[in-house]
Every structure is written in C-alpha cells, then in structure tokens.
Amino acid sequence: MIDKKDLHYVASLARLKLKEEDEEKVREKFSMVLDYVGMLNELDIEDVEPLINVNGMSNVMREDEIKESMDRETLLANAPEKMYGCIKVSKVIE
Amino acid sequence: MLELHSLTIHEIRDMLRAGQICSKDILDSVYSRIEALDDKIGAYLTLTKEEAYEAAAIIDKKIAEGEKLGDLAGIPMAIKDNISTKGVKTTCASKMLENYVPPFDAHAYEKLKEAGAILIGKTNLDEFAMGSSTENSAFKITRNPWDLERVPGGSSGGSAAAVASDEAYFALGSDTGGSIRQPASLCGVVGFKPTYGAVSRYGLVAFGSSFDQIGPFTKDVEDCAILLNHLYGHDKKDSTSLNVEFGDFTEALNKDIKGMRIGLPEEYFGEGIDPEVKKLVLDGVKVLEGLGAHVEEISLPYSKYALPVYYIAASAEASSNLARYDGVRYGYRAKDYSSLEELYVNSRSEGFGEEVKLRIMLGTYTLSSGYYDAYYNKALKVRRLIKQEFEEAFEKYDVLISPTSPTTAFKIGERTDDQLAMYMSDICTVPINIAGIPAISVPCGLSKGLPVGMQIMSKSLGEASIIKVAHAFEQNTNFTKKKPTL
User: Fold this and answer.
1) What is the dihedral of CA B42, B43, B45, B50, to 10 degrees?
2) Is B440 within a domain?
3) What is the phi/psi pair of residue B296, to 5°?
4) Residue B316 has pLDDT above 60, yes or no
5) Residue B227 and residue B170: Cα distance in Å, rounded?
6) Best residue in B303, B324, B378, B385 for a mutation probing chain A (most A CBs within 10 Å)
7) Which of B102, B194, B343, B408 could potentially form a cystine with B84 if both were Cys, beta carbons 3.0 to 4.6 Å apart?
8) Is B140 part of the annotated catalytic residue set?
9) B132 classed as catalytic
10) Is B314 inside any structural domain?
11) Active-site residue B155, yes or no?
C-alpha cells in the first residue's frame, strides 16, 4: 500500500489537496489500482519498443503562417476574473 | 402507425424529402418525447430548443423554396457534453467547467451541422468521460431506459439513454476505453468507435489523447454508416488525423457475408463474462454462420494485460491533459486562496470530482521520476504487443466478435465503491482502443429483460467489413427493433 507521505507528494505534484476524511479511501483505491496494474511485471519486455502512435505517425509540421485568430473579447469571455482586458490573478512578485 | 420519434434517420429523412413531414414536426416529436420522459431518465444536461427551432425554420424555408438540402437536413442530434459546441455550455459534467461556453465548434459537430443536422441538447456523462456508469457526473445520474433502477453504462450514458428512449434520433459520444460501445450495449442501441485518427478530435475535451475517438449512437446499422460518411475525414487542426480516402460506408450495407472469416477470441468469452451474455453473443455468431461466414476460435493471450495498460497510459495522459484546469484562464476558480499556488490547488481540489482526482494522481505517479520506466514506459511496450497480436489475427480474419460488456446493466450504486469491479466493465472494449482499431456494438438480444451487445472488430480502417457483418446480422434478426417500455 502506498504510504501517506508518497500520496501527499503525488497530490502536491498534481496540485491537488486531499481532504483528511477522504485520505484513507483514496489511499486504498490508489493502492488497489497500482497493485492491479503491477500485473505487467510478469512480462519479459526488455527488447520491445514502446508504442507512441498507433498509426505510426510522428511529428506533423505545417508552414508558420500568420492567420486571423480569435479576438480578445471572445477569449476572455470564460475568464473567472478580468481587468483592463487581461486575466486577473493574485500578486506573484513580492 | 409508428410514432415519429421512434423512427430512424433514414426513415425520417425519406419522409422529409417526400414532403410528408417538415423539419419542425421532427423537432416537435423529439422535444415532446424529452418533456414526457427526461425527468425520469436524465439523459440531458442542456437543451437548445430555441436555436433548434430557428435552424428548423431555415430548413423548412429551404424546402418551401425548393433549395437543395444537406444529407442530414432537419435531423435532430444530441451531443455528449464533452464535445465543444460554440455558444452552448460544454461542462464535461464537471463543476470545473459548469459555466464554460466554448468559443468554437468541435470538428465532428461542425461537419454534421454542415450536412443540416440540428443540435437539440447536450447529454450527461461521467465527469471528463472517466467512468463506466455515468454515476460520476457532478450534476445528476442518468437511468437506463430498460430499467430505471439500473445505470445506462458510461461514460457516454446520456447519449446512449437518449437514443434508446427515442429522446434523440442519434447522438455523438466519445470512446476512450469503451465509452460508446459499453453504454450502447447496456441500452440496446448501435454504438461505433472509429479507427484512431479517422474522426478529428478537434474540440473534443481531451482525456486520453492517444485513445479518444468521437463516434455515433444510432438506432440501426444503416444510420451508423450514414453518419460515418459525414464524421470521417482529415482535419488539419488534429495532427493525429488520418489523411486517407475512406470511401462510402453505405456501400457496405445489404452485402452477402458468405465466405467472410470470423474469429472468436477465447479470452473474451472466459472468466467474468456472464453465461447468458456469452450465450446470446454465440447465438448471434450462429446467425452469421448460417449466412455463410466461417467461424473459428482463436486466442489473444495478451488481452488480459489490456486493462493494466489502459489504466496506466490513459491516466498518464489525463494527468497531463487536465493540468490545464488551474483556475486561471477559464473554468472554476476557488473563492479562498492567498497565493497563486493556492489558487491552483484549491481550484483543482474543489472543481474536480473524486474519480477524476484519483486518475490524475495515478497518472502523475506513473509519470513521475523513478516510476516512469516501471509503469508508463512498460505500458507503452505492452501496448505494442497487444496491437501486434491484433494485426496478426486480422491477417487471418475479416472480423473478430466478442461480447461488448461482460454483463448487462448493473444497479445504480452497485459498483461505486468497488474500483476494480467498475474498471472490469470495460474489459472487452479497452483492448480495441489500445490497438487503435474500429469496433461496433450491435444489440443481440435480451437477458432477463436487459439488452446485450455484440462487439464486432476489424483491422484499422476495416470499417466496411464491420458494417457489412453488422448489417447482415441486423437484417436477419430483429434485435435493433426492440424498444424499452416507457
């Protein structure tokens, strides 16, 4: 079972905070899934290449052309807080 | 006479062209059905009645003036609420996107709209398409039209329930590990998961980008073929979109299947599969054998590793894809925070539901330093083995057939506390997404009054073989015609 410290570390990497009352349940579920997917360890796959794209495609490039994009007002319409035509966040520089 | 709402796309399309009905009649039929039933079923999150009637008026005017009509003119459609619809809320059934209104259309939706189809509403799902029962929606549960105490499957449960209850003529869903086929099976409708890259993912809210595909729910196989013709095609805005000629899938309808080679992978009929589900699928296979298909049992030994591969790789992709929800540019922002870091953490912790957070954390873990090789990279290696195994099978067989879901619809609440039991719901569908191949679920009978689905798979871009077999099956049985009593 994943220990509490590791679980907190993973949560912090994912920018998530666990509620204290949920912690045990999450730890249990998390460990159960990890144990289950550990099934892959029984395979000897040292020499197998990882599969990245099922259709064998790699980077798709295009010309860097200047095109019309969405206007500022449309883009800002979903912002939770805005000011002076910008997205507003709390102060990041002391 | 059958009521209008119970008809298929091709049937109402013919009636509209013959002048027997107008576009408004079709909308009336579907909205009155929704009004009568959706309080019970809960398929829809948003209805777009006003816009729909405006669109219908334009089509009726075109008809009156003798203008040329699009192939899907006046056909109402429901769309899963993780597919972007410009100006119409797209919530992913998450508190995170409760008020999000996309400024653009998903490519798939745009193509159907261009053909004349009319959006009637957005359907419920498991939050961010993570789940197999639609119980993970932040807003409401959806009930199975065949038994209101049971789940419709998931994650596209709203779309499946809408079509099954005639609250929609067809619907779009998305399928990352079975999210179209499994609910189609549990609700007794046709559901199709396309070859990876055949339908643009542009505007589909990303979950597991190397698995996700948009596909249709329909009342029969002919409607499915009609929709694939519109949905398939290259799109520059999705760099994984295939640039190939797909052909006309309706040409695969009404074809002789004599001599076609069908493989039955034994791993899909073994442990965990309800005996009655197994029996109905094998009865279905006998029908195909009777039509001249050659059937053989085969083995796909890597299949049992499909779920582990999926839960590692799809969760890893989800953790990366859902990193964008930080409370800054759009989506939910926490009320209380004292720093930017806290704004991220609080917004994400309050905005996401339990299952979504669990998968983000799993994905974060398997991608993290020290675990990447042990989990993520290993999963990608096994992914290759699973894909190769399918490729070898398809050298010998035109299609493979299995159950779509190991059981019929389960009771609401039955699997919510048992993580692995819920994940097992997708045991027959997940391998298909891992290999990137196409598959359909078609109804093949009822077990104790609940629908059972038969899954037909083919090699990449082998859709025509699937349609051929599925249509022949449908024409020689009456299972797609069966409806729940509501």
Assistant:
1) -110
2) yes
3) -140, 150
4) yes
5) 9
6) B378
7) B102
8) no
9) no
10) no
11) yes
